[in-house]
Amino acid sequence: MIDHIETISVFQNYTKDYNEALKDIDRKILHTFRVAKNAQTIAEGLRLGSDDIDLAWFLGILHDTGRFEQERRYGTFVDSLSVDHAELGADILFVDGLIDRYPTQGLPEGWRALCETAVRLHNKLALPSDLDPRTRLFCQLIRDADKTDIFRVIATTPFEDIAGAGRSRFTDEPEAGKELMDCVYAHQCVPRKLVKSVFDNTILYCCMAFDLELEVTRTIVKDQGYLLQILQNGQNVKQIEQLRVIREEIEKAWGFSL
């Protein structure tokens, strides 16, 4: 079994070099711990072995390593305005050697390559088709765990806090356009390049539900209620109707009601 206490200590020692008094950094630290817990819960729901449950938790701790250096270098968490935080995090861990500070005794064979792949891919629009089944499982698991907590963040954090200095990039259009709704009907995630307005951004996060392949994750998301909270947050008649449609399409994709 991996040493959870020492793992957390290494993570905290790394992040203390960044200004934890900043609200955004503190939010990312909390997100990391919540994603690790989500990953562990999902792995337990899948009835994986104890070593694999540890690996899932460990991936949660690692997954957003790049966020802290991204903020220091660029002053933003917006990848399109700075750097792909997943690629940066994987480089910090597996090229620069941060991973060697972590206790890894007790992790299953092949953990290193699997972790690097999962960290690099956790934020991509879709997974490549050539992953072996075990790597794909853990990539999807950490993506599910991440999105599960993203729903919490979006439901409980004011948009201005999330957007930060990038708020001016978003318009205030009253409804989403056809391209975004086409993603909804196709049960696909929304490419960020299509997001122009504040409401478009809401739909982007709602459509992450279509990427949750693991039924255990879908059940967790339903029980937590944050996705439903987002779907009930329309600000005008048009938005309320479009969010109703999105909820119906998610329920079709999942096979049960929210």
Relative helix content? 55-70%
State the order of secondary-structure elements, H for helix, E for strand.
HHHHHHHHHHHHH
Number of E strands: 0
Overall pLDDT confidence: 94
Q: What is the radius of gyration?
A: 18 Å
Strand content: under 5%
CATH class of the largest domain: Mainly Alpha
Q: What's the story with the biggest beta sheet?
A: none
Q: What's the architecture of the largest domain, going by CATH?
A: Orthogonal Bundle
Number of contiguous helices: 13
The H-level CATH homologous superfamily of the largest domain, spelled out, is Hypothetical protein af1432
User: Please, how many domains?
Assistant: 2
State the secondary-structure class: mainly alpha
Folded structure, characterized:
The structure is a single chain. The protein has 2 domains: 1-163, Orthogonal Bundle (Hypothetical protein af1432), CATH 1.10.3210; 170-258, no CATH class. Helix content is 62%, strand content 0%. It has 258 residues and is mainly alpha-helical.
